[in-house]
Amino acid sequence: MSDTKTATKEQPASTKDRPIIVKGARVHNLKDIDVEIPRNEMTVITGVSGSGKSSLAFDTIYAEGQRRYVESLSSYARQFLDRMDKPDVDYMQGISPAMAIQQKAASSNPRSTVGTTTEIYDYMRLLYARIGHTISPKSGRRVKKDSTKTAIEELHRQHDEGTKFYVLFDIPEHEEKKLDDELRVLKEKGYPRLLHIEDEQVLDLTSEDIDADDINAEEYRVLVDRLILGKDDETHTRIAGSLETAFQEGSGRCSVKIRDGEELNFSERFEMDGIEFSEPTPQMFSFNNPYGACDKCEGFGKVSGIDEDLVIPEPDKTIREGAIAAFSGEKFSKHLRDLIKVAARYSLSIDTPYQELSEETKEILWNGKDEYTGIRPFFEDVKSQSYKVHMRVFYSRYRGYSRCPDCKGFRVRPDALHVKINDKHIGEVAEMTIGHAREFFEDLQLSEFEKEVAEQVLFEIRKRLKYLDEVGLQYLTLNRLAKTLSGGESQRISLANSLGSSLIGSLYVLDEPTIGLHPRDNDRLINILKSLRNIGNTVLVVEHDPEMIKAADNIIDIGPFAGVHGGEVVYSGTYDNLLEANTLTGKYVSGRKEIPVPDERREGNGKSIVLEGAMENNLKDLTVEFPLGKLICVTGVSGSGKSSMVHDTLYGAVENEFGSYKDEIGYHRKINGLHNIDSVEMVDQSPIGRSSRSNPATYTKAFDGIRDLFANTRQSKIMGYEPGHFSFNVPGGRCENCKGEGIQTIEMQFMADIELTCEECGGKRYRKDVLQVEYRGKNIHDVLNMSVSEAIDFFVDEERITNKLQTLDDVGLGYVKLGQSAPTLSGGEAQRVKLAKFLSKSSGNHTLYFFDEPTTGLHYEDINKLLDSFNELVNNGHTVIIIEHNLDVIKSADHIIDLGPEGGFAGGKIVATGTPEELVEVEESHTGQYLKKVLK
């Protein structure tokens, strides 16, 4: 145990010896339990799914912490406290300020990125505003504001003492004044001499034979002084005075003409090469406000127009081979011929694959040169002829979203991209992965002054990148949209943020932080949680992972089973004692009980689907075979390319063939073997419904049968009730105050919204007269409050209902209530509800099923049930493809595809394929090495 931990142990008795005590907790299925959680230690709460872990951790301990926090707020917030449900518990002591880090997508905001969510981008904006160098796009020179001091220093740097020179400024220009008026004003101000900049002839404006019409204002400068360069005080003072005068009269600009030599231009304005730049400010780099966002794309980085991926569908083709799809037909082939002529004239390669062409060549391809029109102008011309039907159809074929041409997809105003640190603008840094960004900021080459100015900002950036790297997210790019992150990724970002804030004395409640992590990365996450504990926090983790359980200081096992058969503390203590405990968790972690390795691997049906040339994100031109009629597991370390290959590319291409896939399909050359399957289903962790009125009973259609039963009772017939009266989705029998939701949401302005029980129906969803109708002594609300297992027993004679519910029980969801609101189901639970729906269908077709980490939230015992469901699907003639890290699932697969070897740019390759037994023989496979431990 570290020194920090020891130091924590030496706190005053008032805090160190005061554990969190919970007595008589009865939230949900908890059965009047007492729990003691040591302070400043890491406690893991485990147990089968639905046993009551989250009820204890989140709905009891965290909820009370949150409630006590609200008590300290304004009277506006406190007015809702009387209606905020206090956890059903007798007594609680020692609750610290609590923070919940749950498996929820970080944000649905299309502007929110990994960089903004972690505040790294905000610090980067500050860094670029403080020490960024604005570089002129014309000359590549640094843009600086001059002053009298810098102008004198420049003179001394470039020329020797004794050099003769003139101090000048431009003849002023005013729209309302003519040149002779300007010259008259100059004479009145005491500047009667002009210098011809080429031959250095002095023109005296006091001379009577001077005609303003003979003077070209661009060839002359106003002469302020003739001087000789020297370092003595008198000379220095005179030079400084003359320059100050020239700056003042020249509206911030002046020049120095060396006798018989060059002219040096100086400006107090922020300009270079005739371009006036904006001085960097933090707002200038923000794509979240109108000042910093690119005007064309409004800070989104993409614009509606021509999609590059549609125009160049196969970037591995050359121009000669027809890479530009729009020019491949006979109608527009003239543009290709023009391009070939221009390419020959400027030695541009037309036999190099498009993806390998230089940026300069691509610029010509898209914007044109000489007689070649260019792709963008070509499509602008097509768009202008949209009154012709065939042109409209042609344009729509290539329409989509493409990188904004103004900001090049970097989201910020174009002039912000002229500001660079170590030759990188802020957009280029935002496109880096966390791992590469960490290297970039660690290796920054700065001057002593810049180091001093940026020290604190750099410290904050480096600290946050370090934590993100350590929680296994080094493969994510800083500009990755937050809404595209998985639940596990967003949770680990929240964890890294918590570490970055360095809070002490808090209670952190985490919900399965190992989700989405390969076993290789678990150690790093465990070390992060320990460091959170070591700085003086109490860490409470709901978890099933054996490594996390082993690393805990204290373990609470809730059980013995799920739902009404759970809710008890079956074990509390250390890991060593858990190995001897007579609980399901104890039996599995000690090896007394285990998920068996299949006796043999299925041979499949001899057919397969082959994906060729997959290159989405970090995939390295993969060709992958998926044998049909098998349980296939795609695995690999986090960020290795599993989702890019399976979800974005394979599923996208197959779904597009069978249906209408709305998202962008990952780039690939072709896919073979689709005639071998009849349909496709993606069983992911998205909610089964966005409305709180959606629930397992409605999703599986079991509720249809239940409503019919209630409508057929004698009481209903007397009252004239139809099945619709027992639906909370339509007006009729539902409570209209809450529209059948049972809750009302109160907007708390700057705080999270609070959900309160409907005062009219008391959360029962229905009108009082409808609730008087009973079936076997239960009204419709009582039935919706039953767990799936209870409902199966209650409706034992109604096969129409029990057949639908039995599959929910089979996948381990017997503890879920029929009326549980869809948004409150975890990702893993939502996925298993979908699985149950498919299991209840009896179809002779060959369906290709995709599952994305189905073990989320599952105990060993539940994984056993889940594998039975998968095997049932495969034995019925279907194919199941699973993205998974869980070793018990991987060891049960018939065929494994292992990607890697690392995450991000270092991934995207196939490390190994074959059976689990074949995988353990591959030394480079991280998965194979961990499999050795479970394949005995």
Automatic annotation (TrEMBL):
Q: Name one GO biological process term.
A: nucleotide-excision repair
* ABC transporter domain: residues covered: 295-591, 595-932
Q: What GO molecular functions are on record for this protein? A: ATP binding; ATP hydrolysis activity; DNA binding; nuclease activity; zinc ion binding
The superkingdom of the source organism is: Bacteria
Gene Ontology CC, one term: cytoplasm
InterPro entries in the record: ABC_transporter-like_ATP-bd, ABC_transporter-like_CS, ATP_grasp_subdomain_1, P-loop_NTPase, UvrA, UvrA_DNA-bd, UvrA_inter
Keywords from the named record: ATP-binding, Cytoplasm, DNA damage, DNA excision, DNA repair, DNA-binding, Excision nuclease, Metal-binding, Nucleotide-binding, Repeat, Zinc, Zinc-finger
Q: Does the keyword Transcription apply?
A: no
**Where located?**
Cytoplasm
Chief location bin = cytoplasm
Question: Member of which family?
Answer: Belongs to the ABC transporter superfamily. UvrA family.
Protein name (record): UvrABC system protein A
